[in-house]
Design brief:
With 169 residues, the protein is mostly beta strands. It contains one helix and eleven strands. The termini are far apart.
Length: 169
């Protein structure tokens, strides 16, 4: 009896083509114990940073199953039918001078936390202000309990960290 390992694809089309051209196959080159397998659950992410599963997803095919954050400021939601939709793409993410894997390009949209009973989706991110890095939190309001693929409102909690510098750019 085997267990299925669910993997959300972590490459863009360009990265995927580059990986295949270099001889690295993202599915075949993983070390998997006998009796286990890897299945791609969804695709289409660019620098994913975190994932949060809806604890009790709704039964509709278009109800959210999990959320994925991307470093440059996009939140995607994957539905029960495995559609990948943009939940938000208006987070003021950093535009680094050099892209990954350079160390200065590792800041941006970082974490996600779900509070389904209240209908909240929280995200944390880093932004630049006055040549310094700062942190902030955004709370999105969605449907109670099962959440939804869109938000009805959002509140940014940037005052909490206004005087705190998280690093220099």
């Amino acid at each position: 009896m085997g267990l299925t390992f669910v993997l959300a694809s972590c490459s863009s089309v360009a990265n995927e083509q580059s990986s295949l051209a270099s001889g690295w196959d993202p599915l075949a080159d993983w070390a998997v114990q006998p009796g286990f397998s890897i299945n791609v659950d969804s695709r289409g992410y660019h620098f994913p940073t975190s994932i949060a599963f809806v604890p009790n997803p709704g039964s509709d095919p278009k109800d959210p199953l999990y959320f994925v954050t991307e470093l440059r400021g996009t939140i995607k939601v994957v539905t029960n039918d495995r559609s990948v939709l943009i939940f938000s793409d208006d987070i003021p993410a950093l535009d680094p001078i050099q892209e990954l894997p350079h160390a200065t390009a590792t800041n941006g949209l970082a974490g996600i936390c779900l509070a389904p009973d209240q209908g909240y989706v929280f995200v944390t991110y880093t932004f630049e202000k006055n040549s310094a890095l700062h942190n902030s939190i955004i709370r999105y309001q969605t449907k109670l309990h099962t959440l939804s693929v869109t938000s009805t409102s959002q509140i940014e909690f940037d005052d909490i960290f206004a005087d705190d510098v998280s690093g220099s750019s």
